[in-house]
């Protein structure tokens, strides 16, 4: 927003002293609203902070991430160290191949980053282990950073955390961590009366409890629930929708949220289409993944643009 690079900031100011003074009574400089085009023709709003605010956010991320990581669920894969999209796809495929879970609950949170409830998020930050009230007050101030629109208007947000902020991905995971563990405790991490040495014994004990067998895969705000039976999938769809609304103050997209029988239909996840297809003489169902149509179109467009650049300037060192 201030059009100053990190190099210019270091040259023209004493970075350590400048940041130290800012933190004594922190007020964010504001964020520049930029609309980035999406593959479906719509736009994604980004909030770009000033270089000073980026540095402060990175400092906070480096301190708060290890605290939060201890409490995050094992099958949350987005914006976390040593976890990537391919790990989420691998876990999804393992559940289809080995556990034979073929009913998929696809849930899309409507405008997730723009609708995170500030009051709820601050409570979640404290609960996850961020106890220093000075830190909490600075996070509150960051959430209220003025948004500068192209037309000159300035907006003070009462909800949401701007995409484009360095701290926003961590805050989004803190927000949805409550959902992760709530779903997980329906089955996967439900505490049985006794501790069993084998998974088979644990599984039998869980079945006796008359619970809903469900497994979570989440990458940022893109998440799936895999179930063995349609009835379980329908129950999880309904109660998850209520949990998001009542506990996290978030709505789902009715158009994009659905239950998919992977034996008959595909489900899309992280740029891939996924379906449970028959393979081999016994006809065992296994996960088949391929790039979804919009991802193929996007890659083809980028490839064509790169080829044009190479033709104009055939210098292999640039590529």
UniProtKB/TrEMBL annotation:
Q: Classify the source by domain of life.
A: Bacteria
Pfam families xrefs: RVT_1
Keywords (A to Z) from UniProt: Nucleotidyltransferase, RNA-directed DNA polymerase, Transferase
Name this protein carries in UniProt = Group II intron reverse transcriptase/maturase
Name all Reverse transcriptase domain ranges. 17-274
Q: Which organism is it from?
A: Psychrilyobacter piezotolerans
Q: What is its EC number?
A: 2.7.7.49
Q: Which InterPro entries match?
A: DNA/RNA_pol_sf, Group_II_RT_mat, GrpII_Intron_Splice-Mob/Def, RT_dom
This entry's Gene Ontology molecular function terms read: RNA-directed DNA polymerase activity
């Amino acid at each position: 927003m201030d059009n100053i690079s990190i190099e210019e900031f270091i040259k023209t100011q004493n970075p350590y002293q400048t940041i130290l003074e800012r933190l004594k009574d922190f007020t964010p400089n504001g964020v520049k609203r930029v609309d980035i085009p999406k593959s479906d023709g719509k736009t994604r709003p980004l909030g770009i902070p000033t270089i000073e605010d980026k540095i402060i956010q990175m400092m906070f991320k480096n301190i708060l991430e290890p605290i939060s990581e201890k409490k995050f669920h094992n099958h949350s894969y987005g914006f976390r160290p040593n976890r990537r999209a391919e790990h989420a796809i691998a876990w999804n495929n393992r559940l289809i191949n080995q556990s034979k879970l073929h009913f998929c609950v696809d849930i899309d949170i409507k405008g997730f980053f723009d609708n995170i409830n500030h009051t709820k998020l601050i409570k979640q930050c404290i609960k996850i282990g961020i106890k220093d009230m000075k830190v909490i007050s600075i996070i509150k101030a960051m959430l209220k950073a003025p948004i500068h629109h192209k037309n000159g208007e300035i907006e003070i947000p009462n909800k949401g955390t701007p995409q484009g902020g360095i701290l926003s991905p961590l805050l989004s995971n803190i927000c949805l961590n409550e959902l992760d563990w709530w779903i997980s405790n329906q089955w996967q991490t439900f505490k049985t009366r006794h501790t069993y040495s084998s998974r088979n014994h644990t599984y039998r004990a869980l079945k006796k409890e008359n619970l809903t067998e469900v497994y979570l895969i989440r990458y940022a705000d893109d998440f799936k629930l895999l179930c063995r039976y349609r009835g379980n999938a329908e129950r999880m769809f309904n109660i998850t929708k209520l949990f998001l609304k009542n506990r996290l103050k978030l709505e789902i997209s009715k158009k994009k949220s659905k239950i998919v029988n992977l034996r008959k239909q595909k489900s899309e996840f992280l740029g891939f289409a996924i379906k449970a297809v028959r393979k081999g003489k016994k006809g065992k169902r296994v996960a088949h993944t391929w790039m979804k149509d919009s991802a193929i179109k996007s890659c083809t467009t980028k490839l064509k643009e790169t080829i044009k650049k190479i033709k104009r300037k055939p210098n292999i060192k640039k590529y």
